[in-house]
Amino acid sequence: MAEQRVNVHIPSHPPVLDSVRLRNIQLPLPAAPDPWHRPGKAQPCTASLKLSYSSAVAAAIADDVSLSLDYGKLYRRLDEDIRNLGKHPENPGHRMISVDGSRRDEMLASDIGQDVRLTAGIVAHCGLGLLDETAAGVRRMSHVHNTQRRSSASAGSQSQALAAVFSSSSTSPIDGVFGQCEVSLHLPKALLRAEEGLKYRSVTVWGYRQANEAVTDDVGESERCPVVLEEEFRIDGIRCYCILGVNSHERVEKQAVIVSLEFKGPGQLPWGSTVVNTYQAMTRAVAERVEATAFQTVEALATFVARIVTVEFGNERVTVRVEKPSALAFVEGSGVEITRSQAFFEGRDA
């Protein structure tokens, strides 16, 4: 059940939107989903993030690092937050809400390390927090330089450049009103039957509870909250062996089949909790039952998998990709991709 909704306003994208990226950060998680269902086991994790803000124009014009986001500091803080996973007094789920203002109560009761959404929430909060700190520092610098503008003629070239930046309306420095953090996590060993493990992606932005009022730099921290706009789960590389194909030689011996599952939609809604609660058992069921099939078409096998995922495990919608790596000699993989919902199977025979 979701908590009572609050009205949330999300600022529009600024005219100039720039980003800082950290790609493929090695984050050994002290606790994470374990393929053998053992609690409290450390797991490898690769993370990437894209922190978007307005804007890097001033930093480029003044060539001054103090006007930009420090990605070295971002990495160090992120590393520290992950090392202290589960030790924070507040569950990160308390801060995260959906675009319609709801929040998932079930996330608050779960072990932080076992819910990949909470791990991503820690990463996003770290990025947005640094954006806040940087924007506040830039505002202080702007105040100092505006008060010293008259003496800028005798100052050094860098001080003159900063004064010009702060006095120009076309090169406004970074601000913290708009902030967006896209987080991607890859847990390569989270699933026994999926060669590429579990992948998760989320997009989180600053939202404001002042739905009917203008948003300014002076908005209080208590009036702001991280809003999860979208989420995506991927389970790639479920390798199975089954009879599949119309050719006579394909009906004689089982061949390798690679199944991948994708779930995506608006963030922080019930469908995400269903995926988190079912993906381990669901992956095992898909792998075991596919190996007992004998379909002629890849479409039939993909639909069979989609029915298991949606009807039997309660997931609202899934995109299923089925590939045959041995079908064509000079093609790495050939197959189909379908998207099916629970509603699609209503009234249809199994």
UniProtKB/TrEMBL annotation:
<protein>
    <recommendedName>
        <fullName>dihydroneopterin aldolase</fullName>
        <ecNumber>4.1.2.25</ecNumber>
    </recommendedName>
</protein>
<dbReference type="Pfam" id="PF02152">
    <property type="entry name" value="FolB"/>
</dbReference>
<feature type="domain" description="Dihydroneopterin aldolase/epimerase">
    <location>
        <begin position="233"/>
        <end position="340"/>
    </location>
</feature>
<dbReference type="GO" id="GO:0046656">
    <property type="term" value="P:folic acid biosynthetic process"/>
</dbReference>
<dbReference type="InterPro" id="IPR006156">
    <property type="entry name" value="Dihydroneopterin_aldolase"/>
</dbReference>
<keyword id="KW-0456">Lyase</keyword>
<dbReference type="GO" id="GO:0004150">
    <property type="term" value="F:dihydroneopterin aldolase activity"/>
</dbReference>
<dbReference type="GO" id="GO:0005737">
    <property type="term" value="C:cytoplasm"/>
</dbReference>
<comment type="similarity">
    <text>Belongs to the DHNA family.</text>
</comment>
<dbReference type="InterPro" id="IPR006157">
    <property type="entry name" value="FolB_dom"/>
</dbReference>
<dbReference type="InterPro" id="IPR043133">
    <property type="entry name" value="GTP-CH-I_C/QueF"/>
</dbReference>
<comment type="pathway">
    <text>Cofactor biosynthesis; tetrahydrofolate biosynthesis; 2-amino-4-hydroxy-6-hydroxymethyl-7,8-dihydropteridine diphosphate from 7,8-dihydroneopterin triphosphate: step 3/4.</text>
</comment>
<keyword id="KW-0289">Folate biosynthesis</keyword>
